């Protein structure tokens, strides 16, 4: 996300590109980097992969802070905005989100998605039927980074100021939390997770007292989701139905 | 010679798992590979299909050197395989298991998948029809909408074979297809294998169960990574070395 934001912001500032060009550019740079780091990372699996990508994120923040053309720790200011009023921005982001989600939905429900899910279930079997494991892993990273980069560049444009800290460990963890709370193996899961968690944070934004405890409340929700709902919030209706039918069977027997 | 293994060697650290192994398989033959536990039968399969890298020797398939190439390339050249512990795509239905395995034939380009072109849709329709056909051949068409993990064990084994067939192989490697099956399932499976042979498949089978002997044209016996005997089922049954490998030493009356 940081990479996309910086690429977009720098394209505007140093190269005088229009923001309309800079936002997709941020996505492409992020995707290119994703593909490059995808090569070594494709050899890792499960936990090691998660560790690698998490720490790479931290490394990126430090690299960005140490260069002068990125403004160091102070970041970049005065990024030219696309629109002047908030309402247009709202519709712009809404449109962008829907557009990206449509593309992601299409890919997830095509053979590409099937191949990715089959690798996730058993990489041994997937490669035995001719699915190129490394290729699809790199594809997944690159594809994901494309949208994250677009989001980053759009965010930079909206905020007009970006700092390396905005893209540090905490933001990565927040994103991971949205996904985990919502539900991992489901298209709607992350969307619902993001919606609910962000609503909770925004709801309490006014109150100083609750703001202080937001991290703890969020961590609590994450733990509950991780322990009691392996499939995330999205699996809640199914869980309830299962519980009810168990209860009924118990009464009949 | 269809598949030719010459001087194949594999060591895990100091342990020599496969030692200078030779084997030739002609087209339309069924070759049985038997041997005591830990003799290296599964290792041999993993070497042929590129899951392991060998320490020496060559594997030639259809006139092409396939030594140490990656598993998905081996699959694309026409070698299908099953696994001893039979991992499946557990969260997919039976039909999805097979259609996901149709990744290679016909192969859609990433471009076609992404833009949902007529070519891609035609391919997917064809794959769906072919998958149903494969399920009919192995007798799983009645349970096509069940999740793979909910199937009885014998059915899961057949699904493993169905998945391997979906790659449209010229050579089928079966790793203990009868393992864990009950007598009626074994009878069923043997019939299906006979039928496959009639349809022109070349098969290499690893098996403990001696009932497989009658199905095979030739048997190779492997013990401690070395081939100790090769011949017709009758010859192998009477071979002194085989008897001693299986029952431990000579019989002293």
Describe the structure.
Chain A has 253 residues and is mainly α. The radius of gyration of chain A is 20 Å and the shape is globular. In chain A, helix 1 (2-15) crosses helix 2, helix 1 (2-15) packs across helix 7 (133-159) and helix 8 crosses helix 10. Chain A has helices spanning 2-15, 19-41, 46-66, 86-108, 111-121, 123-128, 133-159, 169-182, 188-203, 208-228, 236-252. The mean pLDDT of chain A is 79. The longest helix of chain A has 27 residues, at 133-159. In chain A, 31% of the residues are buried. Chain A folds into two domains: 1-167, no CATH class; 168-253. Chain B is of the alpha/beta class and 253 residues long. Chain B has two domains: 1-78 and 169-253, Rossmann fold (3-Layer(aba) Sandwich); 92-166, no CATH class. Chain B has nine helices and ten strands. Chain B has helices at 41-48, 71-77, 94-100, 110-115, 118-138, 153-166, 183-198, 233-238, 240-247, and strands at 3-12, 15-25, 30-34, 56-61, 64-65, 79-81, 171-175, 202-206, 218-223, 226-231. In chain B, strand 1 and strand 2 (15-25) form a beta hairpin. In chain B, helix 3 runs parallel beside helix 6 and helix 5 packs across helix 6. The interface between A and B is medium-sized, with 22 and 33 residues.
CATH class category of the largest domain in chain B: Alpha Beta
Total E-strand runs of chain B: 10
Distance between the termini of chain B: 43 Å
Helix content of chain B: 25-40%
Beta-strand level of the residues of chain B, as a percent range? 15-25%
Give the end-to-end Cα distance of chain A, rounded to a whole number of Å.
55 Å
Tag the structure with descriptive keywords.
heterodimer, A: 253 residues, mainly alpha, 2 domains, 11 helices, B: 253 residues, alpha/beta, Rossmann fold, six-stranded mixed β-sheet, four-stranded antiparallel β-sheet, 37% helix, globular
């Amino acid at each position: 996300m940081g990479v996309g934001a910086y690429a977009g912001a720098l394209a505007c500032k140093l190269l005088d590109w229009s923001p309309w060009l800079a936002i997709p550019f941020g996505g492409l740079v992020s995707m290119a980097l994703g593909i490059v780091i995808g090569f070594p990372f494709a050899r890792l699996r499960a936990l090691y992969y998660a560790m690698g990508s998490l720490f790479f994120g931290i490394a990126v923040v430090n690299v960005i802070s140490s260069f002068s053309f990125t403004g160091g720790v102070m970041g970049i200011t005065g990024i030219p905005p696309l629109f002047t009023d908030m309402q247009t921005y709202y519709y712009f982001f809404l449109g962008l989100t829907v557009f990206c989600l449509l593309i992601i939905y299409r890919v997830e429900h095509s053979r590409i998605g099937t191949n990715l899910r089959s690798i996730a279930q058993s990489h041994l079997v997937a490669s035995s039927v001719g699915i190129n494991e490394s290729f699809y892993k790199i594809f997944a990273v690159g594809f994901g980074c494309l949208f994250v980069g677009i989001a980053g560049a759009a965010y930079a444009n909206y905020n007009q100021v970006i700092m390396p800290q905005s893209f540090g460990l905490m933001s990565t963890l927040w994103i991971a939390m949205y996904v985990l709370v919502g539900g991992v193996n489901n298209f709607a899961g992350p969307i619902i997770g993001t919606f609910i968690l962000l609503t909770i944070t925004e709801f309490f934004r006014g109150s100083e007292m609750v703001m202080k405890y937001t991290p703890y409340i969020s961590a609590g929700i994450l733990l509950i989701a991780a322990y009691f709902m392996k499939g995330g919030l999205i699996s809640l209706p199914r869980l309830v139905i299962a519980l009810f039918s168990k209860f009924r069977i118990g009464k009949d027997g | 010679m269809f598949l030719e293994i010459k001087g194949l060697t594999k060591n895990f650290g100091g342990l020599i798992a496969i030692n200078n192994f030779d084997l030739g398989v002609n087209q339309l033959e069924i070759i049985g590979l038997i041997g005591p536990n830990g003799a290296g039968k599964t290792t041999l399969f993993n070497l042929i299909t590129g899951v392991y890298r060998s320490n020496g020797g060559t594997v030639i398939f259809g006139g092409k050197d396939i030594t140490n190439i990656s598993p998905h390339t081996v699959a694309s050249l026409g070698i299908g395989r099953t696994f001893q512990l039979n991992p499946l795509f557990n969260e997919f239905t039976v039909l999805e298991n097979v259609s996901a395995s149709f990744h290679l034939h016909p192969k859609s380009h990433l471009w076609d998948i992404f833009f949902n072109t007529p070519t891609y849709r035609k391919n997917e329709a064809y794959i769906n029809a072919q998958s149903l056909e494969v399920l009919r051949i192995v007798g799983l068409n009645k349970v096509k909408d069940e999740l793979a993990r909910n199937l009885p064990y014998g059915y899961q084994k057949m699904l493993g074979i169905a998945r391997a067939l979906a790659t449209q192989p010229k050579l089928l490697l079966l790793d203990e297809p009868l393992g864990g099956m009950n007598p009626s399932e074994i009878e069923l499976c043997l019939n299906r294998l006979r039928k496959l042979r009639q349809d022109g498949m070349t098969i290499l089978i690893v098996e403990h169960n001696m009932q497989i002997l009658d199905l095979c044209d030739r048997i190779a016996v492997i013990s401690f990574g070395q081939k100790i005997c090769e011949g017709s089922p009758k010859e192998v049954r009477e071979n002194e070395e085989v008897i001693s490998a299986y029952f431990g030493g000579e019989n002293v009356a």
